[in-house]
């Protein structure tokens, strides 16, 4: 007797259009960023280009192109720390696109960030234009005849609108990117930086303009939260100690 063994070969049916479409969407979501994320990146790049280009143009206008070229990096606020911070921001943006793409879909947060960028730019550029030749990117430690105390325009409302505008602009770029980590980091680091820079700068401003600046500082806020003004007497003591140490080191 012959036994016939029937082997049934089951052919797998081709994937449905719905499954293919779902897989395609999943693949695109992993590989390519969403339209919102791409728009955020382009706006971020545009904000950087406009900020630094306008800083250079204004600096060259008021101080001369030859003088600005010598301190090009300082004039455009480009430093190692700045490059590192912006690189970290872009890295966070890319990482969250891959791991948490939904974070980049909050369009209303991006709009708030864009408004902060615009407002920060306006405040800072008003500060530069109002101060003119008196506005410098490097703190002046020696007084000259062209250096004047500016108390009109936007300086009627805040003593350091340039710093205030930059803080709003920088934090705004991270809000616009929907970068939660960089938003917090930028806020804390910049506030700490300006909380040390402002007393240092105002020490020399008090030396240059005396009671005139002291009265101005008492009436007008610094423009940054929780930074009113430093005690001139205490800071003078600190500066005297620092100057003594520097003198001894030079000897």
TrEMBL record:
Keyword Membrane: yes
A Gene Ontology biological process term: methylation
Transmembrane segments: 41-62, 74-94, 106-123, 166-191
Keyword set, alphabetical order: Endoplasmic reticulum, Membrane, Methyltransferase, S-adenosyl-L-methionine, Transferase, Transmembrane, Transmembrane helix
Protein name: Protein-S-isoprenylcysteine O-methyltransferase
Protein's organism: Eragrostis curvula (weeping love grass)
Lineage: Eukaryota, Viridiplantae, Streptophyta, Embryophyta, Tracheophyta
A Pfam family per the record: ICMT
Catalysed reaction equations from the record: [protein]-C-terminal S-[(2E,6E)-farnesyl]-L-cysteine + S-adenosyl-L-methionine = [protein]-C-terminal S-[(2E,6E)-farnesyl]-L-cysteine methyl ester + S-adenosyl-L-homocysteine
InterPro entries: ICMT_MeTrfase, PPMT_MeTrfase
Broad EC category: transferase
